[in-house]
Structures
1.
Amino acid sequence: MHRELVIGAPADEVWSVVAAPERQAEWFPGMVSSAVEGTTRTVVAAAGAFFLEEILAIDHDRRTFEYRITGPMVVHHHRGRISVLDDDAGSRVVYEQEIDPKALASVLDGAIGDALEGLRDLVLHGRTSRAWEPPASTGGGVGS
Amino acid sequence: MARRILFVTTDQQRYDALGCNGGRIARTPVVDRLAATGIRYERAVPQNVVCMPSRATMLTGQHVRNHGVWMNGVPLPADAPSVAGLLHDAGWRTGLFGKAHFEPFLDPFLRFPESRMGRHRQPNEDGRPHRGFDHMELAGHSGAGLVHYSGWLREHHPDHVASYYPPIDGTMDVNAAGGGETGAPQVGENPIPREAHHTEWVVDRALAWLDGMADADDWFCWVSFPDPHHPWDPPASEVGRVPWRDLDLPAGYPADREERERLLDAKAPHWRRWYDGDLVSNYEVPAKWVPATLTADQVREVDARTHVSNELIDEALGRLLSALDRRGWDDDLDVLFTTDHGEFQGDHGLLFKGPYHVDSLMRLPLVWRPAPSSGVAPAVVDGPVGLLDLAPTFCRIAGLDVPGWMDGAPLPASTGEWSQRKRPAVLTEWDSRHPSGAEVHLQTITTDGMVCTRYEPGTSHDGSEGEMWDLSADPLQRVNLWDDPARRSGRDDLLAELDALLPDRPAEPLRVEAPV
């Protein structure tokens, strides 16, 4: 899966957001939270499911962030990479993923497309995604 | 005088499930009575044989290439036209209860309104109609998922959320685990009490909404039963209604293995490849199940459980219609009953569904009981009609012009009316790209007496393959006439007619957003 988007902001500014893995839920629509402990990130999705991820690398020189989903669902292989590149119009963000089971590919592909637009909204307009709950919130979030 | 339309659908139900269509196993007196006092269609044809494309056709009255939902997992665009929207804008109250599936089920990030509405147990989003429906309460095929039924079950019967057979396994494939007494795939023991099962819940919720209607209200109510679609796990308390050991094998199941395989070899190559376990062309089929392993006893057990579900649906519908009759509404009530596509249920040695345009999947139950006040006489229509004709029919009932964006035409009320149709043939399409890389593309025309399928190049076809069936001479569709030189001219005529019906392919197909 490969999605990319040009954002009218300097690459360093965009990278400062991407390089903070605990902030992903602020710009990834449909994520409630993205808590980091050491190299493990726990993402809670709006439907109630959660993903465990291992942070593989944060390369400030190349402006790339790499991670992989480790559970709890059975995942034979996953790699996710977000790259922030210089662009004449500001910066170009490339979000790539590989996953097996392949049945999840289409689900993630659409979601990362939304995520790039959410990143642009946050960087350019300060708008956080609708499902995100700030860490200090005591609200129940989504649910019945 | 108020007008009322009750649109009832099942899921993955065969034509011969109903007594009025010759079914001899499930007792279906409610639908049989609708047929006896209404119009029964002997050749109702879907425009696609999987759920999302077929349901999009029912809602829009459009061919697949025009609404764009070419495969499961492709959401109907948010701005797609809808017959419910037309009715809503004309002042009708509109509701849908049960399975919608205009948007993907698998949606962990709640990208789609149906998921958000279900998760938060809201009948709409921000008080606005969704796809023209004022009120939606949704269900799927199990106790889990992002549907209103799951939230209701968690609240009222938390011990039974996990009672249903899990449709998906731990590797995100459709579950192939065997169950029951024969180890048939997708068969499970479901201890849920009947009153908590989604068949009953769908009717309960529809009645709760209808209870709020005034006598003067015009309303359109789509009651969409998720059954008898697999998993085959009706409430365990009801399974004994149809003892599988007492059933004969279906007429469409070739019991002799050699004959079965010979018949498959006479069809396009993907039939045999799937049977042997060499090909999985669509996500809806358990990838780990090999059809060649299907036993005669498994066919009987699946058959029996399906018919249990067919009976429960009929009885639930009877409960609904009785309640409407007690309100004094029957005289001005149109009732339409159909399904989105069929099921192999043992025919050709197969279960489930896929890119196979034969009667098992393509010949559907369809009954229209016009409002008694309309004075329309009972009839049987034997010429082919499509599910794309439903939306125009709702328009006609409501006294609305059929909009130009609908491809269908109002259902004929008699064979005489059918013979006056401008286009008496019906189109069915299939396009699929499986995560494994398998691609299958076919189009089929159904006319009065013939079915002709053309395959486009894909991973199992080079574009020369096809199937042609003479429905009168060969109702079990065992003699493929595609390569018969004596039928070449007839075949060419059918293909020309197919091309005349086929809309242009969209320049860019809509994106697949989930596997289902």
2.
Amino acid sequence: MAGGPWDAAGIASFFARRVATRSMASAMASELDWHRSFEIAQGRAVRFVLGPLELWVQRHPRDWTLTWRRGADAMGADVELEREAGEVPEPGPGVEMTRYLCERTADGIALSARLADRAVASRPEVPIVVQPHQQISLWISTPLWIRIAEIGDEVPLVELPVVRMSDSWAGRDTRSGTLCYATRTRARTSDLVDPHPVRAITRVEVSNRGDSPLPVERINLPVPHLTLYLGPRGWLTSGLRVVREGGGREPSVEVNEAQPQEATRVVPPRQQADGSGLLQGLQALLQ
Amino acid sequence: MNDWLQTISLGAPPDRALAVARAVIVLALALGVGRLASGAIRRMSDGRLSPQHKMLARRVVFYTFAALGVVSGMRELGFGLHVFVGAAGVLTVALGFASQTSASNLISGLFLIVEAPFVIGETIRVGDTTGEVVAIDLLSVKLRTFDNLFVRIPNETLVKSQITNLSRFPIRRLDMTIGVAYREDIRRVRETLEDVARDNPLCLEDPPPVFIFLGYGDSALNLQFSVWAARDNFLPLRNSMHLEIKEAFDARGIEIPFPHRTLYAGSDSAPLPVRVLGDAPRTGTRG
């Protein structure tokens, strides 16, 4: 059949995409490799770049000195690991430094990923409307938190967000609700997004079974209740399923705990969802 | 009592003199015992009661024994308890009139407890006084002002006054009144303000900032720009927003004008020109 997807041009394009995806996957695999331990000799200072976050780690006999600052590009995807620190910036506007004291510092530090510690209100860059009797999936990314701990220690030194998101409020009015973070999203409708080394992608399935269009101005993701996974397609979280029935009823929301394909469970949810709390938080999922 | 007075005027018979002596001895004994008991209270309460409570306890004990001594002495002299009952009735009426304010405070305190317009730890404003509630007592509420002063407010005053609870709701709005020069483009000013709010992470994205054109002032265009923050971040946001707005205005050349006055020499004349001299030498004139 001429002109169809399985003609010569289509087949060539298909294999080209698979090759490009594999190349991208191997490059991304190395960038995702920051999620591990790093041995640091005493007296040595090393530098890490994890997306927008630039981190200097200095090991002394009885303290770790951590210095960090964030770049202006919130979507930055550069990763540099364990480079020589050079000149460590002094604390000041935009640069923070803290010393963590102990009897004797361990052999190194361990970096691991965490999801945000509050819900994230994601506002589409362009307003979205889901038509009646339609079901769509949106892929929304949120920045990760970097957990820094001594090797072998359960208690972290600090958890740092790669991006300091703006504060926001999730609630029906100004009297009751919860503090959350605010971010912008392109709300992609395809999972063919480039994996990001320090951002996690959440799939939100929205099913509008009503007879009227469903406008989506903001999506409140209950990130602390989501599980974090890692796979070839990067960082992924549990999915969300939102069903809006007709008749003016509130949408029903549930977390889809099905493990994404080819992904490994990395971190459990920060908070276990109790029925009322999660539902209350998710009732403001779509506003 | 008349018989007794008559007896004194006619000269007391021996049994009457004995009665007086007994009365004096009983009173003296009661006062002595009262003093000893008061001293015992003082020794026993060292380190257990505050000086104020210790003094109160000693006086209560002493005056109780004194009252018992007076009553017993009067009985020795032939005066019945009905005399004291009558006096107590009069005393009760007097106390009622004297304590109506305290009773009002007490009842007002009960109403405050039931209605709970504030709780301990919250910050309230009553009239010109703003402070943290440190105690809610039967007769009054105690505040600690931000400059660490102790303020006692009677409950009756609180029930009759307007109370502003600054801590009741989790988020709070900061209203800023800004004046810009008449030559400025209002749309450009608005964009600048919204950029500043968007770049400040403490400023909530939702509820969104509010821009209000207040009017054409004498010397400036008066604008109101309101942003929301978490209650705990209100003061840091207030300082940072004003600082960042000033910096943004300076960077974009937006003028915050001083008060202007235009001088006219006459009704139809042109305005008087004013030339500012820099380092020009002063020339004195005579005559």
